[in-house]
Design goal:
Helix content of chain A: over 70%
Catalytic activity (chain C): glutathione(out) + ATP + H2O = glutathione(in) + ADP + phosphate + H(+)
Number of helices of chain B: 10
Distance between the termini of chain B: 33 Å
Oligomer: heterotrimer
Largest sheet of chain A: none
Distance between the termini of chain A: 24 Å
Radius of gyration of chain A: 23 Å
Structural class of chain B: alpha/beta
Largest sheet of chain B: 6 strands, mixed
Strand content of chain B: 15-25%
Subunit structure (chain C): The complex is composed of two ATP-binding proteins (GsiA), two transmembrane proteins (GsiC and GsiD) and a solute-binding protein (GsiB).
Chains: A mainly alpha (about 300), B alpha/beta (about 290), C alpha/beta (about 270)
CATH architecture of one domain in chain B: 3-Layer(aba) Sandwich
CATH superfamily of chain A: MetI-like
Structural class of chain A: mainly alpha
Function (chain C): Part of the ABC transporter complex GsiABCD involved in glutathione import. Responsible for energy coupling to the transport system.
Subcellular location (chain C): Cell inner membrane; Membrane
Number of helices of chain A: 14
Number of strands of chain A: 0
Membrane topology (chain C): Peripheral membrane protein
Helix content of chain B: 25-40%
Shape of chain B: globular
Chain lengths: ~300, ~290, ~270
Amino acid sequence: MTEFKAWLLAENPDSRAQATLGRSYLAWLRFYRNPLAMIGLVIVVALILMALFAPYIAPYGMTSGLTGNELALQRFQPPSAAHWFGTDGQANDVFSRIVIGSRITLLIVAIVIFTAPILGFVIGTVSGYFGGWVDGVLMRLTDIFLAFPKLVLALALAAAMGRGLESAIFAIAVTSWPAYARLARAETLTIRNTDYLAAAKLQGASHWRLITGHIMPLCLSSLIVRVTLDMAGIILTAAGLGFLGLGAQPPIPEWGAMIAEGRDYILSYWWLATFPGLAIFTVALGFNLLGDGLRDVLDPKSGA
Amino acid sequence: MVNQATKAPLLAVNNLNIRFPSVHGAVHAVRDVSFTMGREKVAIVGESGSGKSQTGRAILGLSPGQVSADSLIFDGIDLQRLSSKAYREIRGKRISMVMQDPKYSLNPVMSIGKQMIEACQIQMKVSKKQALARCMQMLEAVRIRQPQRVFKAYPHEVSGGMGQRIMIAMMLLSSPDLLIADEPTSALDVTVQLQILAIMDDLVQDTGMGLILISHDLPLVASFCDRILVMYAGRIVEELDASKLDQAQHPYTRGLLSCLPSHATKGQPLATLERQDSWLDEALENRGLRV
Amino acid sequence: MTDHQEQAVIAVKDLAIYFGRGEHQVKAVDQVSFAIPPRQSFGLVGESGSGKSTILRALAGLDHVDQGQLLLDGEPLQIKRTKAFYKKVQMVFQDPYASLHPRHTVDKILAEPLAIHGFKDIEQRIIKVMDQVALPHKFRFRYPHQLSGGQRQRVAIARALILEPEILLLDEPTSALDVSIQAEVLNLLNRLRAELSLTYVLVSHDLAVVSYMCERVAVMQQGKLVELLQVDQDGKTYPKQAYTKQLNLASQGYDRARIEQFIDHD
């Protein structure tokens, strides 16, 4: 192990891979020393594991399937050894629903991560790199999308596409990419006139090579930080849409929708809204802490 | 050029050390630096990382590192015992500093005149009218021909040389006893550079203030200052009269001079500096020490 | 001069470059002409704002040209430079801290031009060029922040040399370095020019550097070419223009009496 560490921290690496790994290891060391960031990482990793192994973790199914007398007996049970987070009006186990619901949260996160930031990143770097009319057209387009209020657009989409998780995710993705485009463009503008970019141009590098090989790697870290910090907001927006009945529809255990269901009973059956609320709170906090930690590690101004 | 240091030391630095804690162990940026000076022009010369700037900052109490010294006496005042409030009183009023780039020392959204008057009022506690008069007087002292016009201008509207004159004028508002100039002219063109030095020269002559000029340019400071302290890796390796630069003993000082293109024969390679570990007296704790 | 122009590798004819518009327009370069024969080291010297760097950047294709012509081997340069141009002309920038990509290792920096131009023997060429600039092989997989200023400038020179160009445009290659490091880099540049029969265009504010390095020097002031000087074998120039004389005096150090006679630029 110590040998491996020495190899990673070697002042004069012998290969490209060793140099890259060494740099990543140094970044990890910096991240590791930040306790809050580590808490964030643990929360996010726990969320991912929970979503992956949801069927094995959840003691009950998504729905109880009970009817009649059984349902009447089992519904609205307070937290107990059998039902850690109690049961809801359909006698469903709240803990199981939260565990299974983590898949939905993660699905939203994953879909948004692989659409909005990537689209925004490409538009932003291209716009910033070329400038001129390309920049003008792309940035006006961005402005138009930036002017859409998220919830109103979601309402419109729900009306057009029908209520459901898909329209909620679509609404979030469509309204969140412009922020990334702006960020990527601003970063690109600071890089555009640097000597190292001029030097690469003088080697005859194509626009494609300059954007993907020189500009994107430098913009990427601030994008990652921004996306991580935004994840909390995206989860909250999704939950908000669920709460308004525009996102996931019952009986899908989306956390926001679960709070909405529990809203009517908040005084008599406190656990219905509290536990999904805590779940949203914890995951949002986790992403925020992780984002802050990543910012310290990935800050392009820190040199390493 | 009488060496007044022996008579009444304006500043006495005894065994100054500055360390910067880092993940790889402490970096010893300044090691056992000692010197005394009077109301004269002293140059601290060295390459990047030699600790020359940190020495200047430590005298002003502005070093970000861990400063320790046997004594740090300015005009009878023990600087190490000063409260931060008392230090602020001295800083700007009795000891001033001019930085390399005036762009970063002036507030970009405030007119130059306003900044000068504000600085003047804070330092000297005088009325606005008196402050204005004093500012005009100082702008004329640094030979700005149209002080009225400069007064109304914003920092981005003046050239680098003009900006540096304004900074010097600002630093001299309270007629300090000691001016520390950290590479005040290295961002400027050579003719402007000399004009700025001439202004500082005259001010030293007229007001009798002491000047510490921190620079990397050995021949230039030799033609300008009274005494030179040559720093290498945090130490003063040689101290000599400026007029006797050609009699420098230390191989580092000699090396710095001989590697200049102006001292070379065309067609012959330039002499390069062979650094000796013995110059350090002790092994450097960190390579690539850059301050 | 006509003789020069026929065989010149680089010729600049009535070059004019303007920045800004309307009343704020600045003539960064104003009707400048010169020609550089092969294997000469040609200096452009002047104070800030004299247009010396702008000419170099225009030659490299990094700045626009408003009037006049730039010729390479007698052929006018097109606005869009070809790959063949970049193989022939390379540039070294002033600040080695800013001219190397912070996330690329030395190896990647050197490999990229080879990849762009489709070279096969990347490995051998990297080793060869690192030897040429006397950069120890152990630095090959380091990142720029792990190198000193002088080592970085060696990397930048290696990058410029790896395509085996004939012409190097040098933009203040040593002004960000300490004098002892400057000496090493200047020696390296002189040795490389002799070994590889290179043509240099060297921009500097330092008359001593230019006189030491170059055979001919163009003195620039506020966009205009003030004087073309021949440097004799002792590294001496004999300026006739008042501006050049003043520049010459100023570079000799501080002399209180002399400064009074300087013409003010502010």
